[in-house]
Amino acid sequence: MTIHFDRKQVHDDLHSPSAPAVLDSSMRRAVEHKHAAQALIAWDELRERAHEIKAYAIEHLDELLVRFESEFIARGGRVLWTQTADEAASRFLDICRTHGARSVVKGKSMVSEELELNARLTAAGIDPVETDLGEYIVQLAGERPTHIIAPAIHMSRQDVGSLFERKLKVDYTDDPEVLSEIARVRLRQRYLDAGVGMTGANFGIAETGTVVVVENEGNGGLSSQAPPVQIVVMGIEKVIPTLDDLIVFLQLLARSGTGQKMSTYVHHFLGPVDGRAMYCIFVDAGRTALLADPVARESLYCIRCGACLNVCPIYRRVGGGAYGWVYPGPIGSVITPSMVGVEDAGELPFASTLCGACAVECPVKIDLPHLLVHQRARAVDEGAASSPFENAAVASWTRAMSSSRGYSFAVLAARVGGAASSMLPWISPAARAWSKERSMPKVASMTFKDWWRER
Amino acid sequence: MTDDSGRASFLARVAAALGRKEGEPRPAAPIQRAVGASTFDEETTRDAAALAIRFRDELGLVSGETVFVPDVGGVDAEIERIVRSRGLGPAESDLKKADYAVLRAEALIADTGTALVIERTAERRLAPYLPRTCIVVADSDALFPTMSSASLAALHAAARRGDKGEAVLITGPARTADIEKTLVLGAHGPRHLIVIIAGIQAAEKDAPS
Amino acid sequence: MSRAGTASEAYAPGDTVALFIPCFIDVLFPSVGKAVVSIFERLGVDLAYPEDQTCCGQPAFNGGHRKEALELAARFGDVFEEYKWIVVPSGSCGAMAKRFYSTLDPGSKGATVGARVFDLATFLVDVLGTVDVGARFPHSVTMLDGCHGRRELGCTDAARRLLEAVGDIEYRELPAIEECCGFGGLFSVKFDALSTSMGSAKCANATATGAEYLVSGDSSCLMHVGGMLDHRGSNLKTVHLAEVLASR
């Protein structure tokens, strides 16, 4: 699996009349809402606290996981530890078979995308039903979510209307209210019929062994509570020490994700009531690779609010599809190379100008541009991103820049060549790409250095 | 049920990634809150009338409604009034057919208009989600200014006691913005959320907060 | 002994300021360097220009070529070691020295010396305490704010104050000033469609102000946006902040 940042998608999307405009305006609205919501509280102090809590939790991860496990078991649940996405999906299927489930209702979960759970369930003859409206739309369309918290954000209301008309045989409407009602009615009975209900986890609280799921639609409540068997699929970085720590994150998560002061539902699963069963599947799937890297480790602090996507000028233009895997945007470009392997995704962190807008928005203060540069360096060190030609060019340019004499020769070459491209390493390999829509700067007749000497 | 071999190697991998040496025990100290005192520790005011108004205003911002009644004795009549005035069907024991459900809040958080509801039985577990209208009842004693250790004490206690079921913090009726970030109320849960607070005099309800 | 200059440390009259003139400014935009010299001469600041300086290494750093970036960071440390105050007319190259050298090799000479670097606007406003540098520029201007200067160095406010204090100038705020212009060094050619899409938005916002000049403290961003404006035959001219401040 080699993941490239999809340049063709970039091209297509930039020239498609509706999609990027819809995405761009939605993202702008999301950022405005966030800014309004964070204006009235001690935002920076909260971010600092959240960062400290996550730093503590990640440094004590093994301890917290064990504590969570024992508390979860005491609540009447069962815990499974899975190393790979494949293993996690297999164990999920095992549970479904044990309980004879023929369909699974799913709350919104990004980990589920890592597991490719829908495909695995379908292949096993079990019907996966996405219940979050965005996920439901994306599943109907046979696509993948393109945003961490707004899966169908790349589609216009007209797109959704046509999709419902085609797939659900209903009259065309592009009224979001009516479309939402259609989905509600369709899914009602599915909750009640499902053998298994699945959710992800926003937080796992070690002290109490309770899983916390944050959502707005009520589908998380229905998916987790209606079926007789509940399965939580949880990335191991979700565990935090105490219920009090949760309070800090609840202030940040809704404001950052949707601009709400508080999400409509914050579920705490206390334990299975009579006749029901509750499972938690711990998923590693590359997270320990991030953990083992002292720099990239910080990316495990992420609470998946989507704020870094909303503000990213690249994401706004291309949407999540271009990033090629589960997690798009700045955070995706940081974690994907470690989770799937730098040799397969080393190009992703280069698709950024390092403008840093994401770091300003991040509610847990992840230094995303720094981590992007770190992943670039790993990709270069492992030969996964730069061509031998680029490596040689950078090496020889560095030699030139390492002495006054070398520098003077480079300047001379630029002047003789009459082109800035021989001076500027980022232009030389692709002067044509530069010149397509930009004039090439001219080499001055006298450098500053010469002028200084002669003044 | 745990898979011991998978679990052991899993934990060994985590420990190695954290740079712990082999055989080095995990820190076994009791779980500490990660950082110091919360910014959102309880404010001092417990003036119920002021909190009730703040609660009502905040819940109103997210399309929820709040009604005050002077004492607990008036709650049933208020529910009756709501049901009649909105043309809701009779209360059904089968939640799938019910127009509304009545929930009891163990805490109300004024700062966000949030109700803490804990459902501990199989029969009641879908009550917050299935009907179109959700009526939440609470005593004014349950009002707290902010989300804090104090306002979540009932949740803490339920977890500590090993209560089963689900605790849920509810802030307004269900909603979605998954299509072009356009807000739609209702989604998969209730379209209407009404909180009845008992113990607030009607005369007080419009006093300045 | 640390000699790291910080904004809180006082600049003593007579202290020498070392000019850090980025390589591409040296070769492509020498007038920016000359303008910096003229501003400091007007303010009576003693200047030095270490002639052995070359490139700060940012292209290698951003490209993930850590080894090469480290070499040039070390070289920067050697070349500028003797100076307490180092001023650069570029937020981007300034961020490389001041912020990124320490992520490459904390505590190294390059990081220690790099910490003494100031971008021109911050040095003038926060260190010298000068907002009015005695310039006159009878034109309408708007500002292209480089992302590194804005977010890594926090120099936006200083630049704006300097511009507003220029005689006869008309400053117009650029809509969406915080949005990246799409340059990004190597990004501009590796992802050229995206880069020029972002540049187009910047051109459109700048043009919409109706200003005569687009001013920036970063020649690299100006090279990209100015290159696009020129390619499209726009009347909007680009000029470096230093050149505006040097005008009389």
CATH superfamily of chain B: NagB/RpiA/CoA transferase-like
Q: Which structural class best describes the helix and strand composition of chain C?
A: alpha/beta
Question: What is the CATH third-level topology name of chain B?
Answer: Rossmann fold
Fraction in beta strands of chain B:
15-25%
Unreliable residue stretches of chain B: 36-41
Main β-sheet of chain B: number of strands, strand sense, barrel status?
7 strands, mixed
- How many runs of DSSP E, i.e. beta strands of chain B? 9
* CATH T-level fold name of the largest domain in chain C: Rossmann fold
How many E-type strands of chain C? 8
Characterize the overall form of chain B.
Answer: globular
What is the general shape of chain C?
Answer: globular
| CATH architecture call of the largest domain in chain C | 3-Layer(aba) Sandwich
What's the quick description here?
Chain A has helices at residues 7-15, 19-38, 43-59, 61-74, 85-98, 110-115, 117-123, 133-140, 157-168, 176-193, 219-225, 243-257, 287-291, 307-311, 313-318, 329-340, 342-345, 357-361, 368-381, 388-401, 404-417, 431-435, 448-454; strands spanning 78-82, 103-106, 127-130, 196-199, 203-205, 210-215, 229-235, 239-240, 265-271, 277-283. By secondary structure, chain A is α/β, with parallel strands linked by helices.
Question: How would you describe this protein?
Answer:
The complex is a heterotrimer of chains A (455), B (209) and C (248). Chain A has 455 residues and is an alpha/beta fold. In chain A, helix 3 packs across helix 12. Helix content of chain A is 52%, strand content 11%. The mean pLDDT of chain A is 93. Chain B is α/β, with parallel strands linked by helices and 209 residues long. Chain B has one domain: NagB/RpiA/CoA transferase-like (Rossmann fold, 3-Layer(aba) Sandwich), CATH 3.40.50.10420. Chain B has four helices and nine strands, in the order H-H-E-H-E-E-E-E-H-E-E-E-E. Chain B has helices spanning 4-17, 48-61, 75-85, 153-161; strands spanning 65-69, 100-109, 114-119, 133-139, 143-144, 165-170, 175-176, 184-185, 192-198. The radius of gyration of chain B is 22 Å and the shape is globular. Chain B starts with a helix and ends in an 11-residue tail after the last strand. Chain C has 248 residues and is of the alpha/beta class. Chain C has two domains: 16-127, Rossmann fold, CATH 3.40.50; 140-246. Chain C contains 13 helices and eight strands. In chain C, the strands form two sheets. Chain C has a four-stranded parallel beta sheet, with helices on both faces. At the A-C interface, helix 1, helix 15, helix 18, helix 19 and helix 20 of A face helix 1, helix 2, helix 3, helix 4 and helix 8 of C. Strand 9 (265-271) of chain A pairs antiparallel with strand 6 of chain B.
